[in-house]
Description:
The chain contains five helices and nine strands, in the order E-E-E-E-E-H-E-H-E-H-E-H-E-H. The chain is of the alpha/beta class.
Amino acid sequence: xxxxxxxxxxxxxxxxxxxxxxxxxxxxxxxxxxxxxxxxxxxxxxxxxxxxxxxxxxxxxxxxxxxxxxxxxxxxxxxxxxxxxxxxxxxxxxxxxxxxxxxxxxxxxxxxxxxxxxxxxxxxxxxxxxxxxxxxxxxxxxxxxxxxxxxxxxxxxxxxxxxxxxx
Length: 167
């Protein structure tokens, strides 16, 4: 994982046409040359791309680690505001987001995703507040799946596989 100044992380991107690749620190995959300019997001389209959003970096990093190595490209965002920036810059197949966050919460993030042109990423919420009265009507209305914190690892991975069409 790579960390940027905004407190978000990113798995190394796939090499794009015109990019000069350099070896990553772990030697596994190439990193994109920072000088390369591209008008469109570029990633390995054979792998679903997932954005993991949580205002608690430890939780976000845990979810990233639980999904890493399962055939996904994973980006992270520390909170909804950073997630909106990432969504403006990149195409994602799935957004895994906490519901309760300061500034831009999961509901506002969901609403922002719904205003984007198709194809829109699927959404999966994670929260310790799945029975909170403030979220129940929203979750019923949207039918968006929720994984309760603390996570059942098998359930999290299963729901992610289903939402990205791998199950």
